[in-house]
Amino acid sequence: MRQKKMVAIVAALLTIAILGSSALATVDISGSEVFANGETIEIHDGGGTGTYINALSTNISGYTVYGGSNGTSLINGDTNVTMTGGTVAAIYGGSKLGGAFSGTVINGDTNVTIEGGTVTGDVYGGSEVSGKLSGSLITGDTNVNIDGGTVLSDVYGGSNVSGKLSGSIIMGDTNVEYAIGTVTGDVYGDSNVTGRCAKSIICGDENVTSYIPPRPTNEDTGITEIPLGIPAIPLGAPRTGAASTGLLYCMLSILGVAGFMGIKVCRRKFR
């Protein structure tokens, strides 16, 4: 009963919040934060002169980078953040929800790949949910792959949920693969839930794999590739939506969650 109430609460918040959503910019740099808004971005160094993304000229050294958006939004597709050099404070594959009564839907997978550089804080495959009564829904998998560089804190396959009465739902698996020696802190497949009465639901498996570099191939180890798990809901364009399309997509995503919960296909996990 508590599980169903949690899903209902988060779903309702997302529905209300998405009503007020608007079209997203391509890449937004605000304060000391970067929001990719679903666009594929690469974090790289500037030859010793700073840290940059793609071809943009803003030095983002010490910034926090999100593959998703800032606040209430819909992203219809995957998020992709790759780091090859430079220094940032933290990386999230998902979005940031810092305000109360806010919600985000990512209809796809989140992908974070670190091949070089330094992350001084945490790395999350999911979203940051710090606003009161806010919720994040990711319809696919979260994937974190750390093949190089250094993460000086912890790594989570799920979300960072610190807001009171807030929550995160990941309909697929959380997958973390890392090379031994790249992560100074701990590595978790689940979410980091610290908010009062906050919850995290991961419908799929929590997979954590470590290996001795260089990265082994399937032929070397006999390990098969990680399956994709529950597919994203095939909604098509637009990639980012405003109020009318946002409500439709959000409702379809919520129906997907309710369906899996109702027939008990999902294995619900709470942290």
What report would you give on this structure?
This protein has 271 residues and is of the alpha/beta class. The chain has helices spanning 2-18, 218-221, 243-262, and strands at residues 28-30, 33-35, 41-45, 51-53, 64-66, 73-75, 79-83, 87-88, 90-92, 96-97, 103-106, 110-114, 118-119, 123-124, 128-129, 135-138, 142-146, 150-151, 155-156, 160-161, 167-170, 174-179, 187-188, 192-193, 199-202, 206-211. The strands form 5 sheets. Strands 1-2-5-9-14-19-23 form a 7-stranded mixed beta sheet, with no helix packed on it. Strand 3 and strand 4 form a beta hairpin. The chain starts with a helix and ends in a 9-residue tail after the last helix.
Helical content band: 10-25%
* Estimated radius of gyration: 17 Å
Overall SS class: alpha/beta
How many H/I helical runs?
3
Short description:
The chain has 271 residues and is α/β, with parallel strands linked by helices. Helices cover 15% and strands 32% of the residues. Helix 1 (2-18) runs antiparallel to helix 3.
